């Protein structure tokens, strides 16, 4: 299986729904990857409005 990105929160997953927001709108057309380890201290997480650690796509089409 290939990873897909949630169109709402950009979280990467291999499942049929997003584990973070439970959205079923996933896309396999995404670019960029960011791994958030400490969302409270990460400037990127603040800009992307991410509040839990994990793997996220930078851009989802």
Give your account of this protein's structure.
By secondary structure, the chain is mainly beta. It has a single domain, classed as Rubrerythrin, domain 2, CATH 2.20.28.90. 10% of the residues lie in helices and 34% in strands. It has one helix and five strands; from the N terminus they run ββββαβ. The chain has one helix at 43-48, and strands spanning 4-6, 12-13, 26-27, 30-36, 54-60. The strands form two sheets. Strands 2-1-3 form a three-stranded antiparallel beta sheet, with no helix packed on it. It has a two-stranded antiparallel sheet with strand order 4-5. The longest helix has 6 residues, at 43-48.
Indicate the topology.
Blueprint: E1 4-6, E2 12-13, E3 26-27, E4 30-36, H1 43-48, E5 54-60
Antiparallel strand pairs: 1-2, 1-3, 4-5
Name of the CATH class: Mainly Beta
For the termini, the CA-CA separation is: 19 Å
* Backbone CA Rg: 11 Å
Question: Any low-confidence stretches, pLDDT <50, length ≥5?
Answer: none
> Roughly what fraction of the amino acids lie in strands?
25-35%
Shape: globular
What CATH calls the topology is Rubrerythrin, domain 2
Structural class given helices, strands, pairing?
mainly beta
Percent of residues in helices comes to under 10%
């Amino acid at each position: 299986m290939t990873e897909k990105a949630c169109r709402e929160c950009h979280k990467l997953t291999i499942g049929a729904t997003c584990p973070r927001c439970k959205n079923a709108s996933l896309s396999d057309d995404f670019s960029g990857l960011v791994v958030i380890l400490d969302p409270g201290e990460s400037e990127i997480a603040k800009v992307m409005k991410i509040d839990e650690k994990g793997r996220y796509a930078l851009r989802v089409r």
